[in-house]
Amino acid sequence: MELNPYDVAKKQLDIVAKEINLDPNILERLKHCQRILTVSIPIIMDDGSLRIYEGHRVHHLTIRGPGKGGIRYSNEVNISEIKALAMWMTWKTSLLKLPLGGAKGGIKVDTKKLSRGEIERLTRRFTVEIINFIGPDKDIPAPDMNTDSQTMAWIMDVYSMHKGITTPGVVTGKPVEIGGSLGRTRATGTGLFYIAEAICKKLALNLSNMTIVIQGFGKVGSVIAEELFNIGCKIIAIADLSTGLYSEDGINVKELIQWKNDSKDYEELKEYQNNSVKIIPNSEIFKIKCDILIPAATENQITRENANDIDCKIILEGANGPTTPDADEILKKKGIIAVPDILANSGGVLVSYFEYVQDINAYFWDLERINKELKRVLLKTFEEVYNLSQERKVTLRMAAYILAVSGVAEAIKLRGHYP
Ligand code: NAD
Fold first, then answer.
1. Ligand 1 nearest atom to the CA of residue 173, by list position
2. Alpha-carbon span 235 to 207, nearest angstrom
3. H helix count then E strand count, the chain
4. Minimum-distance ligand 1 atom for the alpha carbon of 297
5. What pLDDT digit, counting tens, does each position of 163-203 carry?
C-alpha cells in the first residue's frame, strides 16, 4: 500500500497533540504548511531537446527562525513527501533549540539519467525559480538525497550572481573553499554514532560488540557504517536501491568505501564484486537478525507490513521518517527501542547551523571545535529526551516529539496568530 508521507507526519502530530493536550488552534496551524512553491524547470538537454522538470520548496513553519532543510533529487519526489520532510525539520530544529524553522525542497528527477552538465543547468534554473523563497534570513537549503556540496555551490553561485553580492549563508553543506564548514559532510553519520554510544550506555550494552544492519549507503549510511566498523562492530548487511550485501562475519566496510571512492562512475552496490559477501535482495534487509538496525535511505520503510519481521534491539533512524506510526506500535510491543529521526540524525542540521553561524560571522572554527560542539549539543538533547521518556513512561519518539512540538507551540503562543 502506498503511504502518503504527509498523512503519516500529520498522524504523528495528532498522537503527540493528544498526549500533551495541545491547544486545538495550534494543532490546526501546525497541520498546515506556511508556504508552498511548485515550479516548472525547463532544461535544454545535451541532445538539444527541451525537458520540463517539476520542483518544490516548502516552508512548513518559520515562526522560530528562517526555514532550514535539504533539497533532494529523486524520481519519488512529490509535494506530499516534501511537505512531510519540511514538517519533520520544524520538529528537529525545535528539539535542538536552534533558531530555525522547517523547510524542504526537491526535484522529481532520476539524476542517473542526466549528464553532469544537465544536472548543473537543472540546479541553476531551479535556484532562479525559487530565488525569492530562499536566503540567509528566509530559508537555507542543504544537501539531501542525490545532492551534495557541488549542488550547494551552484545554488550559492546563482543566488550570489542575482543579488550582486557573494552570499555564502544562503545554503549549508557547501565546499569549505566557499564558506562551508569543516565536519559537515560527515556530521549526520558522526551524530548518529554519538547517539548510538549514548543509547547503548543507557541500556548497558557494549556498542563495539554489536551486529549492525544498514539500509542506505549514501552520505549518511556510509559514514555511520564506517564509524561503527572502526570500533569493531560487525556490519552484517548493507542495502541500497540496487541490492543488498550480506556477510555473517561482517562486511569489510573500509574496503567497500575504498571501492566506492575509487569507482569513477560509482552508482550502486550491485556492481560490488567480493567473494566474502553474499548478494541478497534489498527487500530482505529488515528480516536479518541484528543488534542495531539503521534505516538510512528514505521514508516509510518500516511499516505494519514488515515491522513484525524485524528482530533487533535498537533502531537508529538515520533517514527522515523511516518508520510509520503503525509500525511504531508493533515495535513498541516487541520491546524494540526506536531512536527517532529528529534526534538520531539531527547532527546534520546541527553542523549546518554551525556553518550558518560561521558564515554570518565570517569566522571559521576548526574541526575539533565543530565535533566538540556537535557532541555537546546532541548528548544534552539526548539526555533531555531520554529523561522525559523515563519520567512519562513513553517511547523516545514520543518524548522527542513532546519536547519539539511544545517548543513550537510556545513560540506560536508568544508571537500570537497574526493579525
Ligand atoms: P544519499 O542520496 O547520499 O543516499 C541515499 C542512499 O539510500 C543510497 O545508497 C540509495 O541507493 C539508498 N536508497 C534510496 N532509496 C532506497 C530504498 N528504497 N531501498 C534501499 N536503499 C535505498 O542520501 P543521504 O543524504 O544519505 O540521505 C539518506 C536519508 O537520510 C534521507 O532520508 C535523508 O533525508 C536523511 N538525512 C540526510 C541528512 C544529510 O545530511 N545528508 C541529514 C539528515 C537526514
1. 40
2. 12
3. 13, 12
4. 7
5. 999 999 999 999 999 999 999 999 999 999 999 999 999 99
